[in-house]
Amino acid sequence: MNCFFKMAGLALFCITNVSAGIVNGSFEQPATSSFAYDPLDPTLAWTFAGRSGVAANTFFTGLPPDGTQAAFVQQYLDQTGSNLSSITQSLTGLTLTPMTLSFFIASRPGFASNPVVVTYGSQNLGTFTPSSTAFSNVTINFTPTATSGNLVFHSAALTAGDLDTAIDNVTLAPVGSIPEPASLILFVPALVGLFCLRRRTAVN
Q: For the chain, which residues make up each domain, given as ranges?
């Protein structure tokens, strides 16, 4: 039984460290059965502003890349001035070495896509617009110029219509340190097997 708990803990350690640096990157909190504008993230990781939020449906089709929920950034015609929708997470303790930021984006069915500008601190990492309702992966390699700053996904501009983009599975890690999912599936059981074999040998 102790071996089982150690196995579970080891597997969890391996998985959670894959997306080190981003908290609640799959937007599973706060939980909703539909969608919620500007929700309070119970993990206190993300701050939602304007017409952004989390959704379990409506803003995307099918299952999101990770979990059952995704975030969305909506820009609507009633927003004026500098009132752009955004999703923000404050990051600290970054190293000033090459990093890979990865996330998935998709269009809302029946609506035009909302171009999303991604920034870290004073660094503009690019503007990204989903091309379909199917989630597609975006990866950005960059070198932070500061050890702390805000990671922001925000609407590119005001609009006279209704623009929507879903975002999911945000990760940030040193370049080359994110295993492919298939590799992770093979790696965790192998590591657990070696652990149990060593324990059995020690007992005998």
A: 21-203
Identity of the residue numbered 94: L
Instruction: Enter the CATH code of domain 21-203.
Output: 2.60.120.260
Task: List, for residues 162-185, the tens digit of each pLDDT value.
Answer: 999 999 999 999 998 644 443 344
| Three-class HEC string of 136-168 | EEEEEEECCCCCCEEEEEEECCCCCCEEEEEEE
The DSSP call for residue 28 is -
Asked if 94 and 151 count as a contact pair (C-beta separation under 8 A), the reply is no
Torsion of CA 132, 135, 136, 142, to 10 degrees: 120
Model pTM?
A: 0.77
Predicted confidence band at 77 (pLDDT cuts at 50, 70, 90)? Answer: very high
